[in-house]
From TrEMBL:
<feature type="transmembrane region" description="Helical">
    <location>
        <begin position="249"/>
        <end position="276"/>
    </location>
</feature>
<dbReference type="Pfam" id="PF00528">
    <property type="entry name" value="BPD_transp_1"/>
</dbReference>
<feature type="domain" description="ABC transmembrane type-1">
    <location>
        <begin position="71"/>
        <end position="277"/>
    </location>
</feature>
<feature type="transmembrane region" description="Helical">
    <location>
        <begin position="150"/>
        <end position="173"/>
    </location>
</feature>
<keyword id="KW-0812">Transmembrane</keyword>
<keyword id="KW-0813">Transport</keyword>
<dbReference type="InterPro" id="IPR035906">
    <property type="entry name" value="MetI-like_sf"/>
</dbReference>
<protein>
    <submittedName>
        <fullName>Spermidine/putrescine transport system permease protein</fullName>
    </submittedName>
</protein>
<feature type="transmembrane region" description="Helical">
    <location>
        <begin position="21"/>
        <end position="45"/>
    </location>
</feature>
<keyword id="KW-1003">Cell membrane</keyword>
<feature type="transmembrane region" description="Helical">
    <location>
        <begin position="75"/>
        <end position="99"/>
    </location>
</feature>
<comment type="similarity">
    <text>Belongs to the binding-protein-dependent transport system permease family. CysTW subfamily.</text>
</comment>
<feature type="transmembrane region" description="Helical">
    <location>
        <begin position="106"/>
        <end position="130"/>
    </location>
</feature>
<feature type="transmembrane region" description="Helical">
    <location>
        <begin position="204"/>
        <end position="229"/>
    </location>
</feature>
<keyword id="KW-1133">Transmembrane helix</keyword>
<keyword id="KW-0472">Membrane</keyword>
<dbReference type="InterPro" id="IPR000515">
    <property type="entry name" value="MetI-like"/>
</dbReference>
């Protein structure tokens, strides 16, 4: 009997389906490659090919104090917004998890509706609220807390306030899901073991919700790094962030090479942060 005469083992139904299981996603993958991957690669290639082959654009970017200030503004705002959303989002997510059904559904609907409201409309609303003659300044002056209007717009303070409001739901939702998954009996056991409320929070609550905090913080931080509309309207040109700089380089200065370099810097930073998050708070892997 030759090798070719040896009967082959029949394939299992799962093995036969394996070859066809990838087919339904091919159109979506092709669309992503066509409208995202190829344009991004083309922009990044321009960063090393225009105006001449080499790394001149990266040298210009990192050698300019103006561009480094823009990069610093981007990180400062993204970090501040992330910290503030954690501090504000945690108690809201906790209330959503323990509140009676009616109040929980009502607050959850408010959080979701805020996400569905048009982004431009929300940003323009904050422009009205934060201006020198806006509701916030007038209220503070009427209460006698300030003697003159506070500069709350056309600076990083206004950008932080507006972006915190917009990013808050992206912190609340993963935190709420994580808190809902915690068995309340764990806190009862901690109390029976003599733990105070502070100890139960720091030694039980925070470790159990660390994955939700990490997921929400990653989402908020990465989205804040590349945000454009809110910083452009509330911050002004004097407080530019990296996404605004890239848009200006492309639309106004037509410097595609430098824009590609700035885009690659932003992409590398984002991927690095994502890899760090996966390393410490990955897809449920056990950590020693």
């Amino acid at each position: 009997m030759t090798v070719t005469d040896v009967p082959m083992a029949p394939q299992s139904p799962a093995a036969r389906r394996g070859g066809r299981g990838f087919a339904p996603v091919l159109p979506a993958l092709a669309l992503v490659v066509l409208v995202f991957v190829i344009p991004v690669l083309a922009l990044l290639l321009r960063s090393v090919l225009e105006p001449a082959p080499g790394l001149q654009n990266y040298a210009t970017f990192f050698g300019s104090t103006t561009y480094l200030k823009v990069l610093g503004n981007t990180f400062l705002v993204a970090f501040t917004v992330t910290v503030v959303t954690v501090l504000l989002g945690f108690p809201v997510a906790w209330f959503l998890a323990i509140a009676p059904s009616f109040w929980s559904r009502l607050l959850f609907a408010i959080v979701i509706l805020s996400m569905w409201t048009n982004l431009l409309a929300r940003t323009y609303a904050w422009m009205v609220l934060l201006q020198r003659t806006g509701v916030i300044n007038r209220t503070l002056m009427n209460l006698g807390l300030i003697s003159e209007p506070l500069p709350l717009i056309n600076n990083l303070v206004g950008v932080t306030i507006g972006m915190t409001y917009i990013m808050l739901p992206f912190m609340i939702l993963p935190l709420h899901a994580t808190i809902r998954s915690i068995d309340p009996a764990i806190f009862q056991a901690a109390s029976l073991c003599g733990a105070s409320r502070f100890q139960a929070f720091t030694r039980v609550m925070l470790p159990l919700t660390a994955s939700g905090i990490a997921a929400g913080a990653l989402m908020v931080f990465v989205m804040s790094l590349g945000y454009f509309i809110t910083p452009a309207l509330l911050g002004g040109t004097a407080n530019m962030m990296l996404a605004e700089l890239i848009a200006q380089l492309v639309q106004s200065l037509l410097d595609w090479g430098l824009a590609g370099a700035a885009a690659l810097v932003l992409l590398v930073i984002t991927l690095a942060i994502y890899m760090v998050q996966l390393r410490f708070f990955g897809f449920g892997q056990a950590r020693g």
